[in-house]
Recombinase (Streptococcus pneumoniae), 142 residues
Amino acid sequence: ARTKNRHISQSETEVGKVIEKIYIAGIYARLSQERKEAYRDKSNSLEMQEELCINAANEKDIKILRVYKDYEYSGTNFKRPAFIEMMEDIRTSRINCIIVKDMSRFGREYLEIANYIEKVFPFLGVRFISVNDNLDTKDGIK
């Protein structure tokens, strides 16, 4: 019988196991002013965006801290009240994951979106999930 490791307790051998990171999410939903009538009770409504993101969070065992909603704000500008609050919650480590219905709800300036997803969020340790775009940065961007 092997005797080399018999004096090591089980708890000591469990130290090497990988601990799964716990994600606390903020769901971000946005509806622009020019679209509010067209999307009433449809797939882009704030409520539908929220429901889709909650379902995605539940599937991935992600806890939700808060839903951030910008109503009647254009996606071309990132100076939106709920977006600013969400970024502050990231900076203060209240959340470490963002879930959106799709990229267009996050913003319309694609270079700015790419900057957040490829540079800002990885630097801050934030996981980004865009449900309908099948994007989850948990394991990096591919």
In short: Residues 110-124 form the longest helix (15 residues). The mean pLDDT is 87. The beta strands are 24-31, 63-71, 97-100, 127-130, 135-136. The longest strand covers residues 63-71.
